[in-house]
Design brief:
With about 575 residues, the chain is of the alpha+beta class. The chain folds into 3 domains: about 15-235 and about 410-465, Bira Bifunctional Protein, Domain 2 (BirA Bifunctional Protein, domain 2); about 245-390, YbaK/aminoacyl-tRNA synthetase-associated domain (YbaK protein, Alpha-Beta Complex); about 485-575, Rossmann fold, CATH 3.40.50. The chain is built from 14 helices and 31 strands. It binds one RNA strand of 77 nucleotides through strand 8, strand 16, strand 21, strand 24 and helix 11.
Length: about 575
RNA sequence: CGGAGUGUAGCGCAGUCUGGUAGCGCACCUGGUUUGGGACCAGGGGGUCGAAGGUUCGAGUCCUUUCACUCCGACCA
């Protein structure tokens, strides 16, 4: 491609709302154009990168025996009603009616469509396993799109779905195979990433892992172990059971108070309680109150009991009570329900209040907890006698011990979620009656896996991880052009003709951009840096001495080479 | 959805407080000079000031309504 003929418009200015490097450079370099909240046009450069990423993903998936399909973007709402998600998905699902008043949704993900497709053809276990995918525009009416391609409303996603006859196949042929395939994809794209344990969220199902590109600008907090390979999204992270203060430090003693219901006037917070009894917060029980929202507008008050030294992890809490969402609740609402903010506890609760205790309180026979009565706490409360429900509720903190190796310290880091794989089981196939006949002639729902990659988000992720203060630095498999040839001054006949000769020759094997614009050198080299192409050949002043230069975009180093050698030298760098 | 803010030329902004008929930089067009780190000179084109209504002799500026967008928090590839 000749730059003088290309639809490439770089800019020195950038809309002030762009804050992330990826957003800034994609706009400045003329890769994308913003057209509305979370909506972008891909210009030729952006489209080229998109296609490169697309190609890598397709190649690896096809190698893993996945087959590409393309499903309708406009999907009849009946499938969504069948799966139960029509109600559940909420406002993110864009719904509309056609002229005949039939209801449709714009596909935000395609489980329903894919289940419908497979159930209409596959009838026998002999036809399994199957793994189908598509790379297609999705639409999610996000509450708050932001950060350019990082969180758009319309975006390009690879979504794949596998169908299996049993759990073993679902894990081995589906989940594990995709974990490996995804790792290959992100490696090829040159990304530094981590596979982490994840919460399954709204899509449902059991096991799930996320592929996180490590970057400070990431929206997700992930917990990683300093010693072993353990990594998890903060929403799903677990830790080794922390030791009690008296087990760690002989200066402390385990409090052995047993006062029953005890007057604690105006002692409301954990800090006050610990101070009042002169003990560590570990020996107290903290209650966090939330309002849990369910289908059809049902609301319940949910209380979560954790150690005074811990923090509640809201996603875990939400899953623990099977709610669609947890929201904050006011003291007034709690009082109306017969609760006593500041003195809430697991014993003597009013009716209709959900109470879940954290796993790490299991077996606790002496703690201090609110008595559900103003100014009173139970001291020496035995939780075992209460028959509580236990779930994992706590947020892992930096410095906690790893549950896997029981040795390493856990720390936080930031990540961009570029891939997510789930074991779905029969979450969709059962309600949608997608069944096959097994070896015994018995009808069973398919067991499924679902696998996503944010293709357009990957462009942003690649830049977040690969840029300097002049622009992006595309990786080998993502760059819009392999090489740029800069003709320093097109009015110098020997420069222009050499540039064109090299361009012709190298274009046989590479995708080359020839900057033949009537601009000054400085202008062109800055554009090269802003486009982020890995290498450039500068054809300039020294042509008369038989020399040109090769620039490495990453290091910005220039290397003088003779005209005769340049083609073979560049080939060496590019292959 | 809560909080904050912005809509003026393709982009970035000033002008709004204190009403008097729209300006700067970049980009674009023409001519010339220049040519290794985003050049210079001269000339030129382009805006019903987000929209609607109101106050006024007169509104980018004041009032009302409305729409859109952005930023910070709860959701997600």
């Amino acid at each position: 491609m000749k730059f003088s003929e290309a639809f490439i418009f770089t800019s020195k200015d950038v809309p002030s709302e762009a804050t992330l490097p990826s957003h800034i450079y994609l706009l400045k370099g003329g890769f994308i154009q913003s057209v509305g909240a979370g909506l972008y046009n891909f210009l030729p450069l952006g489209k080229k990168v998109l296609d490169k990423v697309h190609a890598v993903v397709k190649e690896e998936l096809d190698t893993a025996a996945c087959q590409e399909v393309e499903l309708a973007f406009v999907t009849p709402s009946e499938f969504w009603i069948e799966s139960g998600r029509f109600e559940k998905y909420g406002k993110e699902l864009l719904r509309f009616k056609d002229r005949k008043d039939a209801e449709f949704v714009l596909g935000p993900t395609h489980e329903e469509m894919m289940v419908n497709l497979v159930r209409s053809y596959v009838k026998s276990y002999k036809q399994l396993p199957i793994n189908l995918y598509q790379i297609k525009t999705k639409f999610r009416d996000e509450i708050r799109p932001r950060f350019g391609l990082m969180r758009g409303r319309e975006f390009l996603m690879k979504d794949g779905y596998s169908f299996h006859k049993d759990e073993e196949s679902m894990i081995k042929d589906g989940f594990n195979k995709m974990e490996e395939t995804y790792s290959n994809i992100f490696k090829r794209l040159g990304l530094d990433f981590r596979v982490v344990e994840a919460d399954s969220g709204a899509i449902g199902g059991s096991g799930s892992k996320e592929f996180m590109v490590l970057a400070d600008s990431g929206e997700d907090t992930i917990v990683v172990c300093e010693e072993c390979e353990y990594g998890a999204n903060i929403e799903a992270a677990v830790r080794a059971n922390p030791k009690a203060p008296h087990e760690v430090n002989s200066e402390y003693e385990r409090p052995e108070m047993n006062f029953g219901k005890f007057l604690t006037p105006n002692v409301k917070t954990i800090d006050e309680l610990a101070e009042f009894f002169k003990i560590e917060p570990y020996y107290t029980l903290k209650v966090v109150a939330k309002k849990a929202l369910y289908d059809d507008g049902v609301e319940k008050i949910a209380l979560f009991g954790i150690r005074g030294s811990d923090e509640l992890q809201e996603v875990k809490a939400c899953n623990a009570v099977n709610a669609n969402e947890l929201i904050d609740i006011s003291d007034e609402e709690l009082q109306e329900a017969g609760l006593t903010p500041g003195f809430m506890g697991p014993k003597d609760l009013p009716e209709d209040i959900l109470f879940v205790a954290d796993n790490q309180l299991k077996g606790e026979i002496s703690t201090i907890a609110g008595a559900n009565e103003v100014d009173y706490h139970y001291v020496g409360l035995n939780l075992v006698e209460l028959g509580l429900e236990y779930k994992d509720l706590v947020a892992v903190k930096e410095g906690d011990k790893c549950a896997r190796c029981e040795n390493g310290k856990l720390k936080y880091t930031k990540g961009i979620e570029v891939g997510h794989i789930f074991q779905l089981g029969d979450r969709y196939s059962a309600p949608m009656k997608a069944e096959f006949l097994d070896e015994n002639g018995k009808s069973k729902p398919f067991l499924m896996g679902t696998y996503g990659i944010g293709i357009s988000r990957l462009l942003a992720a690649i830049i977040e991880q690969n840029h300097d203060d002049r622009g992006p630095i595309w990786t080998k498999e993502s760059t819009p052009f392999d090489l740029e040839i800069i003709v320093s001054n097109i009015k110098k006949e020997e420069e222009l003709s050499l540039g064109e000769r090299l361009y012709k020759e190298l274009s046989k094997d590479f995708d080359v951009l020839l900057d033949d614009r009537k601009e000054r050198f400085g202008f062109k080299i800055s554009d090269f840096e802003l486009l982020g192409i890995p290498y450039a050949i500068i054809v300039g002043k020294k042509v008369k001495d038989g020399l040109v230069e090769i620039v490495n975009r990453k290091t910005l180093e220039k290397e003088e080479v003779s005209i005769d050698e340049v083609a073979s030298k560049v080939r060496g760098y590019l292959v």
